[in-house]
Amino acid sequence: MISLEQIRLLESKITRAIELIRILKEENGTFRRGLETAQKRMKELETLVDGFKTDQREIESAIIRTLHNLDELEESAATGRKADHAGGGAPTAPTPPVAPAFPVAPAPPFARPAAPSPTDPKNPTVPGGQEPRPPKEELDIF
After folding, report:
1. Which of 4-18, 57-71, 91-105 has the weakest average pLDDT?
2. Which residues contact 132 (CB under 8 A, 6 or more apart)?
3. Which H or E run includes 27?
């Protein structure tokens, strides 16, 4: 026969099992919400990665096109130089100067350097107003 004590022990075990089931259901709900949030974020990141891949392909194709254009320009310039040297090609018009991308301050006026003194031992002049000679004790190797 079943005693009263066995029934109380069974009741306490059932109560603990019910409490554990309730806690596990709460944790399960929390984990499911976290999983949904993580999956949404993962989809957002996958979209970003796909966008980056598309941008990367566009950048690579633009670089390849630019390199191809530079190669063509280099080849045409080399061909033009060969034609100018070989056949004395028609003179080309000078290219106009390109404006800088940033403002440039005007160059300061250059002052003409003073003529060296005939008595200056570092810059002796040659009689007759010719260019100065380097001093005899120094070697001009460059």
Report:
1. 91-105
2. 116, 123, 124, 125, 126
3. helix 4-87
Rg, Å, the chain Cα set: 45
Q: What amino acid is encoded at 113 in this protein?
A: P
Give the tens place of pLDDT for each residue, 13-25.
Answer: 999 999 999 999 9
Query: How far apart are the two ends of the chain, measured CA to CA in Å?
Result: 120
Sign, CA dihedral 21-27-32-33, equals positive
As a whole number of angstroms, the distance between CA 116 and CA 132 comes to 8
Tokens in use for 40? 């949404």
Q: Which of 110, 138, 102 is nearest to 123 (CA)?
A: 138
Report residue 121 as tokens: 């031992």
Q: What is the Cα–Cα distance from 78 to 61, expressed in whole angstroms?
A: 25
Q: Which residues contact 117 (CB under 8 A, 6 or more apart)?
A: 123
What pLDDT, on a 0 to 100 scale, did the predictor assign at position 81? 80
Q: What does 100-126 look like in DSSP terms, one character per residue?
A: PSS--PPPPPPPPPPPPPTT-TTSPPP
